């Protein structure tokens, strides 16, 4: 049996939203929920010099289709969250 680990924050009492699962309609899956704090992955931070040299700053500056990069980034995050949404009502 294949296992997929997904960590979610409960937004509504008794409900968890899990999206982007690789299963098709009609497939049978078993869901086991465990509560607890997620493990933090430590990553070394970047210095200002490393960040400036990384190419991330100004990455979208020459894109004519992006008027406001913060609005565009927010839209990308929202699209990723909505992609393949499956809502489970655990209250019954």
Structure in words:
This protein is of the alpha+beta class and 92 residues long. It has one domain (15-35, 44-89). Helices cover 22% and strands 11% of the residues. The chain is built from 2 helices and 2 strands, in the order βααβ. It has helices at residues 48-53, 69-82, and strands at residues 15-19, 85-89. Strands 1-2 form a two-stranded antiparallel ribbon. It starts with 14 loop residues before the first strand and ends with a strand.
Structural class: alpha+beta
- The neighbouring-strand order within the major sheet is 1-2
Q: What integer value in Å does the Rg equal?
A: 19 Å
Give the overall average pLDDT. 82
Low-confidence stretches: none
Helix content: 10-25%
| Topology, number of strands | 2
Q: What spatial form do the alpha-carbon principal axes imply? A: extended
What's the story with the biggest beta sheet? 2 strands, antiparallel
